[in-house]
Amino acid sequence: MFLFTSVAIGRPAGDTTFRSGSGIKEVWLHDTKATELAHLGMLWGFLKYHHPDATSGAVDMDAELFRVMPQVIAAANMDSSYAIMERWVDRMGVPAACRKCVTNTNEAKTFTGPDYASLFITTVPQSLRSKLDSIKKNRESSKNRQYVKMATEGNPEFLNERPYDATPYPDAGMRLLALYRYWNIVQYYAPNRHATRNRGRMLADMVQEFANAGDTLAYQLACLRLFTRINDGHGRLDARSKALETHKGIYITPFKARFVEDQLVVTGYYKDTLNITGIIKPGDVIEMIDGMGMIDLIRKYLDIVPASNHQAKLAAMAGADGFLLRGAGASAKLSISRNGERRDITVPRIRVAEWMRKADAWHTNEQGYRMLAGNIGYIYPAGLAGSDLKNIQASFENAKGIIVDMRCYPAVSMMAGYTAWLKPEASAFAKQTTMNIDIPGLFEFGDPILTGGEKGKHYTGKLMILVDETTHSSAEYQSLALRSMNGAQVIGSRTAGANGATAEIVLPGGIRTWLSGVGIFYPDGTATQVEGLRIDKEVRPTIKGIAAGKDEVLDEAVRMLSE
């Protein structure tokens, strides 16, 4: 049985007791133990972000967790667990009455208030709830926070979070710390936490998977499942560990594919190698990979592909960092359909390379601007250089219309110079929600964000913005700004719904991930996270068009501008 020992509270800089591990090698979960450990995680996060000894850095909250966790694990029942937690709160000490209490004084700007999950429900003993309520009410304003501060653009910055990266497979206590750390960051500092699937059950649901993860791969897959549940396209896992890469497969087909008309369709090639262009063609529909049908493959990977919406998930699955086209062997057996004819083929695979990931994520294979037939200017932001604006202004001065193709990730920001050139009059294009540093969990709307209205020469012709599921994050934000130009239109299909600047999170095992740190909305309050941008005219590629080498979205924009 684990025994509680009163250990002196140490400062983060000096308490090295648990730097190499929690000492908790395994956790036996039975009866209500997952719920008890979930409540421990909620309590730990509440104290971390509310108790003055934690927010000031007087205690190391990781070390505190590892001192109390063994007792909760060993507790015979839930009542015993709550008693242990309450003694822990007593040892932390209930703060004195605040001198400058923090309250929400601007409810008109409130988007969403704090959420304490199950900490204040009636099954928690009244004595413990009263102590937690006192801690909450007596939290004083302070600019110095040990674990979080407000960075640029209102983003949270998470401080002094140790990566515990000596091994990619941390012990059971460290794995539960990873779950607790992430869940509480989402609970108090994710502006889009309302998009999380079953957030109330998220912690208890994942305790068993984190506690029982048997190796590095199982732990990293548990992290991916956790990240996926918040429906945030910034929630990728950046570990590049041998375990996860091997699980995906170190080989990939030399061709590219995307989901079109609800089917996985070949669209082009990463590399013309091993006669791949003679084996498989753009427009071919992939129905099976190595004996598994596409519906089963999607179901297999759906809960380990972080994204904001289903279309973005499918795009990520088919990419160079996805699962569908990768494998352990140097070839893949495919069942394809070409012009309605079913055939079985074997295609070679090549080793995944960093240039593939970059090309897949950033779409940099095209020049930044050119003139199309019919005197229509075309801008491809992934290919732009910082010095291109003056040449674009001169070249497109008399263009009949301009197309900005945001089906990519911009290499430069179009927020200043381009919007100043395209918008003679200033107007609001968005507003955002940011955290309140003094009240964890409170998010408030800021003032409308304006663009345009600067002096100088302006382009006053028509503007078309092309988007689809690859229009992600900065591309969505810049599209939002460009759309506010008078008469501009957004053409294409649903975007990734991952708008806003990002905040980095570090977890045990050296894992890094991100979340959207601010909420981005239209001026009327309509959300862009998950939902994506408003589409003025929906145009989607077709299998027939891809087979013919057409870009149907671009063609439609050209047609509309030529009318």
Structure, described:
This is Tail specific protease domain-containing protein. This protein has three domains: 33-230, no CATH class; 250-351, PDZ domain (Pdz3 Domain), CATH 2.30.42.10; 365-562, 2-enoyl-CoA Hydratase, Chain A, domain 1. Strands 5, 6, 7, 8, 10 and 11 form a six-stranded antiparallel sheet that branches. It has 563 residues and is of the alpha+beta class. The longest helix has 18 residues, at 33-50. The protein is built from 18 helices and 24 strands. Helix 1 packs across helix 6 (172-189), helix 3 (61-74) packs antiparallel against helix 4 and helix 6 (172-189) runs antiparallel to helix 7 (199-212). Residues 1-11 have low confidence and may be disordered.
Question: Can I get a quick summary?
Answer:
It comes from Nemorincola caseinilytica. This is Tail specific protease domain-containing protein. By secondary structure, the chain is of the alpha+beta class.
Kindly, what is the distance between the CA atoms of the first and last residues, rounded to a whole number of angstroms? 80 Å
**Please, what is the average pLDDT?**
92
- What is the count of distinct domains? 3
Say how many strands there are.
24
Radius of gyration: 26 Å
Helix content: 25-40%
- Low-confidence residue ranges: 1-11
Helix and strand content put the structural class at: alpha+beta
